């Protein structure tokens, strides 16, 4: 037999559970000067890449390095991230001293936060790519399905960013041009510039091109430059780039596309 109790709800407020999409910075080094240089190199020419996004600082990767016990200047770190229009709110994964310092800097401990990472087997068909230091990876929904379509060739110095969606380019991406998308990148022409897919950490993003000859390719912060030539079976041919994770870390996999 059920018993119904009289209750009274507050008139002026309600308390509900909520979730917030966060960008996560996986910090791999306590050297903030080097972090500043690398953030400038990666995002300096895209000043509106972030839009005051809330940020989780993940110190987990730091704990597996030689700098596990290194002190961190969180005031300097949060100011540095603010220069790139990021708003640090929370921290996870640090040791007791680091977490205490983070709290003093106004960050909220969030050790139960989950950071999205790449998953799946790693049958690589190309040499391993390099991991971009301190690349941000988000805990956020996948990009929407409405793609940004570019019909004209992109010349050197031009840049296109499909925020929150896929990017479709119907003409050549020339050397010195850059295409960026939070989702997939499709180039129905030669890709000879830079292509950065999954820019906010979507590890499922891919890069497709009818002629794969890029200066740089990157998915979710894992990148490869033209200093490491592509294998002959994909160089200048229809191909796709995807991200796989294995025992040796995240790697880019490049597959030929058969007609």
TrEMBL record:
Name of encoding gene: minC
NCBIfam families: minC (TIGR01222)
Family from the record: Belongs to the MinC family.
Bias type Low complexity, positions: 119-134
Alphabetic keyword roster: Cell cycle, Cell division, Septation
Subunit: Interacts with MinD and FtsZ.
Name this protein carries in UniProt: Probable septum site-determining protein MinC
InterPro entries from the UniProt entry: CAP/MinC_C, MinC, MinC_C_sf, MinC_N, Septum_form_inhib_MinC_C
Region (Disordered): 119-141
UniProt-listed HAMAP family: MinC
Job of this protein: Cell division inhibitor that blocks the formation of polar Z ring septums. Rapidly oscillates between the poles of the cell to destabilize FtsZ filaments that have formed before they mature into polar Z rings. Prevents FtsZ polymerization.
Pfam families xref list: MinC_C, MinC_N
Boundaries of every Septum formation inhibitor MinC C-terminal domain copy: 149-245
Residue ranges of domain Septum formation inhibitor MinC N-terminal in the record: 13-88
Cell division in keyword set: yes
């Amino acid at each position: 037999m059920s018993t119904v109790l009289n209750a009274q709800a507050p008139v002026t407020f309600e308390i509900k559970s909520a979730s917030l999409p966060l960008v996560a910075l996986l910090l791999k080094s306590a050297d903030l000067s080097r972090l500043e240089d690398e953030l400038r190199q990666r995002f300096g020419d895209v000043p509106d890449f972030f839009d005051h996004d809330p940020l989780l600082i993940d110190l987990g990767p730091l704990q597996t390095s030689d700098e596990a016990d290194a002190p961190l200047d969180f005031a300097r770190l949060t100011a540095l991230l603010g220069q790139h229009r990021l708003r640090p709110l929370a921290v996870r994964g640090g040791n007791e001293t680091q977490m205490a310092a983070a709290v003093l800097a106004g960050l909220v401990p969030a050790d139960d936060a989950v950071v999205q990472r790449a998953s799946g087997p790693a049958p690589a068909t190309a040499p391993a790519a390099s991991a971009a230091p301190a690349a941000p990876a988000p805990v956020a929904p996948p990009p929407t399905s409405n793609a940004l379509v570019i019909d004209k060739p992109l010349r050197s110095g031009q840049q296109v960013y499909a925020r929150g969606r896929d990017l479709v380019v119907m003409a050549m991406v020339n050397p010195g041009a850059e295409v960026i998308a939070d989702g997939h990148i499709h180039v129905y022409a030669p890709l000879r510039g830079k292509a950065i897919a999954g820019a906010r950490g979507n590890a499922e993003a891919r890069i497709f091109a009818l002629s794969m000859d890029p200066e740089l390719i990157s998915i979710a912060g894992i990148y490869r430059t033209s200093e490491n030539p592509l294998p002959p079976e994909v160089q200048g041919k229809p191909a796709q780039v995807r991200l796989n994770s294995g025992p040796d870390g995240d790697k880019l996999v490049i597959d030929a596309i058969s007609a």
